[in-house]
Amino acid sequence: MTRTPRSPSLVAAVGLVALALAGCASATPAATTPSPSATVAALDGDITVFAAASLKTTFTDLAESFESENPGTTVALNFAGSSDLVTQIVEGAPADVFASADTKNMTKLTDAALAESDPVDFATNVLEIAVPPGNPAGITDFASLAGPDVKLVVCAPEVPCGSATAAVATAAGITLTPVSEESSVTDVLGKVTSGEADAGLVYVTDVTAAGDAVEGLEFDESAEAVNTYPIVALQDSASADVAQAFVDYVAGRAGQDVLRAAGFGAP
Amino acid sequence: MSFSLDLHVAERDVRLTLAVADGETLAILGPNGAGKSTLLGTIAGLIKPDTGRAELGGTVLFDLPPGGGTRQLWRPPHQRGVSLLAQEALLFPHLSVLDNVAFGPRSAGASSSRARQIATRWLREVDADQLSARRPAELSGGQAQRIAVARALASDPGLLLLDEPLAALDISVAPAMRRLLRRVLAERSALIVTHDVLDAYTLADRVVIVEGGRIVDEGTPADVFDRPRSAFAAGLAGLNLLTGIRRGTTLVTADAAATVANLPEPGVAEGAPLSLAVRPAAVSVSALPPADPALTHVRAELIDLEPRGDCIRARSVVLAADVSPKEAAQLDAAVGSPVWFSFAASSATVYPTVHSDRTTSS
Amino acid sequence: MRPSPTSYSGVPRWVLAIAAIGAAFVLLPLLAMVLRVNWAEFVPLISSESSVAALLLSLRTSLAATALCVIFGVPMALVLARTDFWGQKVLRSLVLLPLVLPPVVGGIALLYTFGRRGLLGQTFELLGIEIAFSTTAVVIAQTFVALPFLVLSLEGALRTVGSRYEAVGATLGASPTTVLRRITLPLVLPAVLSGAVLSFARALGEFGATLTFAGSLQGTTRTLPLEIYLQRETDPDTAVALSLVLVVVAIVIVSLAHRTGVPSRRRTRVLS
């Protein structure tokens, strides 16, 4: 499966910004595009970012580089399942930025009128088959997951990766009979790495992050269910400018590089 | 069944040998801590001694020779045919009286109905069959103890052990219980540990005194209590005991603390050890020497006057006398000074201290 | 025997105040949850296919786990209370470990034992017994976490009762098995029952070990707590409604435990 950039002009603009950033090593803030509230003064403040669990490695790196590029800012991170995070924010948890693993949960947030502006899509993710090293059950493609003796573990339909699994299975016309439907993709991956499951359906980013613990098998049908990740700054933030700057950072060149390296697709 | 025992428990410093003939009841008396409960525990199989051997009716209950070895045998309690009756009735709280008594026969394999028949018979024997449907929590202390006797006997033990069975009962209830025991123990081999001399007299054929983990006296109740060999036995029997050596017509106590004058016919050689026993009630006390010089008398310091019911006990180191309140009032001034204790020769028992055929202490 | 209203209880007032705060600490979250329940939809929510499947599975597995706790826990309590051997203290601490272990850690340990690549798992697989992803795995996880409850409460009761009755029974000719059957167990039956009820409650609420060890599939391994966890993602109303069901069941169970655990005390009537 190939990934094509969706917006050549955006790429060009990001490229210009990257050049500008490379040239200015001092503390002057980058003028990010396209942002309604571009500031010229040095960024200063603390923000808390609530991000989906699958963004853990990438956002940790991005937070560090953002902080070093903007001394005077601190980025605190909170990772959990997207719906958990939305619930916490709606109940009043102090978040400045929210990055969701799917649009459904982001919609809950915007419906509650808690977003500062419109959410920005910053990454996509597709499913991949994960098998234990050595592929003991000899999985070759998506259809072989429905084999009679295959112990398949998937996400439950109620969670984003599960609804993606259901969509892919329907599109492929195959009925899957998993032995377990987990509530989080981490648990699915865990069952595969421990050898309990013959195969699991997880995200591409999970396979990349697991390294040698699993082998990954890409499959064509995965294009039927693409998960889109939006990000937005929240209302009533104490450091609204820092929040928006981080959102732009993630959607911008630096963020995209890191996300792409981890396996995420372009938004 | 006849029973023999040889026992050594180092931890509690107990070393004894005794035997009970078929149908005989042996009473064991001794101060607290003398090892009586340990003794019963080893016979019942609840305490394991270091070395020893016990045999009941030809069956070895345990055989633990010194130095271990392959001959070691320890029969578990449920295979010994020895029943234990304690101070507390310890009736099983969750079973009815009838089922309590039927427990022994049931455990031996009798059917439920047969066991209840046996239980009913024994309940009648102890005059408690009207209580058979009750629960132990609904019984008084005396009733519970009766049922415990029935329960212990219903399992038809070869040897019955009784550990101070009347000690926890009300004074008003004890006599009836004592009569019951007398009746049921008549044909049975039994060992009864008690503090009460009356129990020994009423229930026992023979008596054994245990002190410091050793047997210090043995014989019929009359032997042991009319002619006590130790202060403890004398105390149990309620007698004064003076021991010492004969010097002519006097008895000189061991530490020369007192000299008893005008001994009755001693029956021992000059210089031989001698014991004299006399009841306190037979002894009079006076501040002046006794009027009748022929009375046996001792001069000793009057330590104290103790009220005891309706008489007062005048105590000295060697002797005690029971006096009336009027006499006590007169003696009050003499407390702390020497007085004269005197008694008729006929009231005292004088006997040699060493009796070679009585003690079997090791 | 409850103290009568006129007798002196001796509890200082400030102690009462602190106790009230503690009680509120426990009760207010329950109240908050009750207030969030969507009462209009309550019955349809808890009678949906997945909810009913989860509840029935939870009850079945918890009952099985409780039975196992009794079968294994009674002998363990007897050995700990009545025997004496070198290393007993250490063994007792290890046996009670599941009480303090995070359930997820317990699940991981079970996985390493019974999983496909586990200590015993390979033997089981050769015998054709599949444990992972089965209802058996759920029962194993629940038994693992609930066993210490029974052992602990029963061991305490055995020590309190003492062994004097057993000694009497032995002298009356009862073999050790008969003593156990006719004397020991009847005497501690209330403690066995209350321990079993506590174990049942713990098994019913078990989550972490089940999740890690058994997986989650409707009707096979998705117990009520797992169902609630899942429903949180999409349907908070269902999650709250099912949580309330679990709370009610727990309250009923705990009140049962309290009733069976306190033996009825009969007064001794003194008779002539």
Instruction: Categorize the overall geometry of chain A.
Output: elongated
The strand order across the widest sheet of chain B is: 16-21-17-14-13-12-15-22
Instruction: Give the spatial strand order of the biggest sheet of chain A.
Output: 2-1-3-10-4
Distance between the termini of chain B: 25 Å
Q: Total strand count of chain A, please?
A: 10
Give the termini distance of chain A in whole angstroms: 16 Å
- How many individual domains of chain B? 2
Proportion of residues in helical segments of chain A = 25-40%
Structural class of chain A: alpha/beta
Detail the poorly predicted runs of chain A: 1-5, 20-38
Describe how the helices and strands are arranged.
The complex is a heterotrimer of chains A (about 270), B (about 350) and C (about 270).
Chain A: H1 8-23, E1 45-52, H2 56-69, E2 73-80, H3 82-90, E3 97-99, H4 103-111, E4 120-125, E5 127-131, E6 152-155, H5 160-172, E7 180-182, H6 185-193, E8 199-203, H7 204-210, E9 215-217, E10 227-233, H8 240-251, H9 253-262
Parallel strand pairs in A: 1-2, 1-3, 6-7, 6-8
Antiparallel strand pairs in A: 3-10, 4-10, 5-8, 5-9
Chain B: E1 3-9, E2 14-20, E3 25-29, H1 36-44, E4 51-56, E5 59-64, E6 73-74, E7 82-85, H2 97-107, H3 112-125, H4 141-154, E8 159-163, H5 174-184, E9 190-193, H6 197-203, E10 206-211, E11 214-219, H7 221-226, H8 231-237, E12 240-247, E13 250-253, E14 259-261, E15 273-278, E16 284-286, E17 296-301, E18 304-308, E19 311-315, E20 320-323, H9 325-331, E21 338-343, E22 349-352
Helix pairs in contact in B: 2-3, 2-4, 3-4, 4-5
Chain C: H1 13-36, H2 42-46, H3 49-82, H4 88-95, H5 97-100, H6 103-114, H7 121-126, H8 135-161, H9 164-171, H10 176-204, H11 208-213, H12 224-234, H13 236-261
